[in-house]
Amino acid sequence: MRYTWPRFLKTFAAVGAVAVIGLVVFELASALEPRIRMRVDAQRNPLVVFVVIDALRRDHVETLGSQRATTPDLARLAKEGFVASGMLAHSSQTAPSVASMFVSKAPHAHGVQFDPRTKRFGNNGKSKAPVLTKSNLTLAEVLRGEEYFTAAVVANPWLREEFGFAQGFDQYVEIPCHKHGRGVCDGARINEEASKVIRNHAAEKTLLYLHYLDVHNPYAHAGKLPRVFRDGPGRVVYRNGKAKGVSSKDLAYTIDAYDDGLLYTDSLIGQLVRELESVAAERDVLLVITSDHGDEFLEHGGLGHGSTLYPELLETFAIFWRPDGRARHPRDERLSGTIDIAPTLLDLVGIRKPREMAGRSLLGSSSGRPIIAELAGQKAAIKEYWGVIRDLDARQDEVVAYSGAAESEPSAELVAELSSLLDALDVRATVNSAAPDPKVVQQLKALGYIE
């Protein structure tokens, strides 16, 4: 009898340990279960729509930071789907950022870099245009290999077929963004082209990539959109980079014009969603929405984008939505990168992620890995929502807090880890170069990209 009590304790401890492990597994499964239920049935001709809203910063989106009613349709999608709200872009310029989304690699790995000093591309800052080489495996190529019809409708002239961004697409429609001397590109045309693809390929598995430019400069379509947030006279001030002498009145009007463009874009998303809902009875539908970068409004002395790696330019999001609303309110606040979007999308449609993709599915557990962001001679390494931004030319490091940083200061160990990681990215390798067509140059000037 003298051994009964110790044996009981051992048995109790063992049972308790199993119970604890079971509880942890249950809680993890419960947390992931809504996302797992988002999986697409490959037998029902899936329609996967991947939307990028150019220049949309996260804190201007309802439920993700904005106090204004800027995005009622996005707010609904965020409520009904699941949201990666701790996501960061890997660059603050469209070409490297979108390349990272589609090949699931940081810019130094896929070779598309933008240099804010020269307004050119490549690690050496000498190429007039971006080049996404064929050595990169894109999301479109992966899905086409799985018998998907792949189509794209893009508005940003940096994403032209001649620069390599059409890799893997069966159909690639470029919307000219130049009208009456201004860089205006109405997303209504993107919706028109999207409707054609949805109707004409209803019996096929389909990937449809849509890239909207209505939030981008010129804000509010050069003042042509209805006034909702703009109150009274004013002028939009825009440039990419440092901006001096901007009055508080002009800054406020500029932000109001930006939000008017966002409200219009949100209405286009609502129109797209209604069409997706109309076909959901015949086929499975998955909608993914994100942005490639934000715009800055003097938070660090500048405007526009493509000049720094501060939070206002890198903080983005991803919404994954199905029309039947099988997932409600799951919000993933873990630090993630836009390179994780493609692996998550592939996971949801039941396709194994290729080895070439460095990102990870958001359906899995967090690894706590750092996020890398780049602008040629500027590099950032971010972990636990703290980042070290390095200027390779000035040989300076800056420690920056991103939204979500829990502590008032990062630990010395974390800063040392991030600095060590940046040491490995001190590169100035030459990459392929290209020169844009003169008509494209005109569009780029109208959009404020080049002078």
Provide the descriptors you would attach to this structure in a database record.
19 strands, Alkaline Phosphatase, subunit A, 32% helix, alpha/beta, disordered N terminus, 451 residues, eight-stranded mixed β-sheet
Describe the structure in your own words.
Helix 6 packs parallel to helix 8. The protein has an eight-stranded mixed sheet with strand order 7-6-8-1-10-13-2-14. The chain has a four-stranded antiparallel sheet with strand order 16-17-18-19. The protein is built from twelve helices and 19 strands. It has one domain: 3-Layer(aba) Sandwich (Alkaline Phosphatase, subunit A), CATH 3.40.720.10. With 451 residues, it is α/β, with parallel strands linked by helices.
Tell me the overall shape.
globular
Calculate the terminal CA-CA distance, rounded to whole Å: 91 Å
Rg, rounded, reads 23 Å
Superfamily at the CATH H level?
A: Alkaline Phosphatase, subunit A
In short:
With 451 residues, the protein is α/β, with parallel strands linked by helices.
List the helices and strands and how they pair.
Elements: H1 4-36, E1 47-53, H2 72-80, E2 82-84, E3 87-88, H3 94-103, H4 107-110, E4 114-115, E5 120-121, H5 139-144, E6 149-154, E7 171-174, H6 187-200, E8 206-212, H7 219-223, E9 241-242, H8 248-279, E10 285-290, E11 296-297, E12 302-304, H9 311-314, E13 318-321, E14 331-332, E15 336-337, H10 341-348, E16 371-375, E17 378-383, E18 386-391, E19 396-401, H11 412-423, H12 438-446
